[in-house]
Design a protein that fits this description.
11 strands; 40% helix
Length: 339
């Protein structure tokens, strides 16, 4: 521990010495008598405890002086409690994410027929791809979560960490902007289970004492799992670790959405406390992001190292206690000091 203003110590010491001198000069004067030898006897001497309030006042003055000199710890680990979560955003980068958002597609039973973009209704303006619309929704969500640590995971055939958990949201948004169809070039499958498993592992490794109930995973995908681990098993692992998983279906085809294995994934997400959002447009994606922002609230505790952490309370609180005790004791007749 050190003091930012040690020079104040000399002024405080001089002030205390001046007060002591004034008190000594103002001591009461008494006339001697022939009974002085009786008063000097041990049986008639005043107890030194009567000066205890004065000692408490002196201690309060010294402690208050120490607080005024601004004591600090050069390096200290402090605990910061904020309203937030640890969130991992898991983004599907399969080849289907490059399709236009809301594009009309033929039923799978008619896939043998020739189908071109001219067969669908021509949009009045340029339509975003699923990936572009999802990136915009993710950036909006990140901007809303000011007190959260956020990580970013992408997956296709395999899963990869793009950004670890961090409070630097501008850093996360920059990496979201850098995501494109060339990032996982050569891959095109949808390994949802692997993406969720990597998110669980990332949260476990970077938890740093944060309560596991304050962790969440947000999955953005436009397809069904067709590679890697079973999503149902991974969702069970997330639940066992108190990690909530929310799933956003990005323009998910109705035929895929009605498949039994896909329905089981939806049901598992909801059974374990998460939410499923069916986003068929960019507006739906933004709405899903804002809904998740409203329902996901928690307390996040971090312990960063800070320099020159103030500890004036180590002096101020004992000084207040001493002053309070001194005032209280002066109300007791036994402690009245007339000298």
């Amino acid at each position: 521990m050190r003091f930012l203003h040690p020079e104040l110590g000399w002024w405080i010491a001089a002030a205390l010495a001046a007060i002591a001198m004034v008190r000594w000069r103002a001591r009461g004067r008494f006339v001697g008598s022939t009974t002085v030898r009786w008063l000097a006897a041990p049986a008639y001497r005043a107890s030194v405890l009567r000066r205890f309030p004065l000692a408490l006042l002196a201690a309060a003055g010294v402690l208050l002086g120490g607080a005024l000199m601004q004591p600090v710890l050069p390096y200290s680990q402090v605990e910061i409690t904020s309203r937030g979560l640890d969130i991992v955003i898991v983004l599907d980068l399969s080849s289907s994410m490059l399709e236009e958002m809301g594009r009309v597609r033929p039923p799978r039973s008619l896939q043998h027929l020739t189908f071109t973009t001219s067969d669908s209704a021509a949009p009045a303006k340029a339509v975003k791809t699923r990936l572009a619309a999802t990136k915009d929704a993710i950036k909006s969500l990140v901007a809303l979560r000011r007190d959260d640590r956020i990580a970013l995971v992408v997956f296709s055939d395999n899963a990869y960490v793009i950004s670890p958990l961090t409070f630097d949201h501008e850093y996360v948004i920059r990496y979201v902007d850098l995501i494109d169809d060339q990032l996982l070039r050569g891959e095109g499958m949808t390994a949802i289970g692997d993406g969720l498993a990597l998110a669980n592992d990332l949260l476990a490794r970077q938890s740093r004492g944060v309560a596991r109930r304050n962790q969440a995973v947000i999955l953005f995908t436009d397809g069904e799992n067709n590679k890697g681990r079973d999503p149902l098993a991974v969702l069970g692992e997330s639940h066992d670790s108190n990690i909530r998983v929310h799933m956003v279906g990005v323009d998910l085809e109705e035929e895929v959405r009605k498949k039994p294995q896909v329905q089981r994934v939806f049901q598992s997400v909801q059974r374990y406390g998460g939410r499923y959002f069916n986003a068929s447009s960019a507006r739906d994606l933004e709405l899903a992001s804002r809904t998740i922002d409203r329902i996901e609230k928690g307390v996040l505790v971090s312990k960063p190292f800070v320099r020159d952490a103030p500890v004036y309370q180590w002096f101020a609180l004992p000084a207040l206690m001493c002053l309070t005790m001194a005032i209280g004791l002066r109300a007791v007749p036994f402690f009245l000091d007339q000298t």
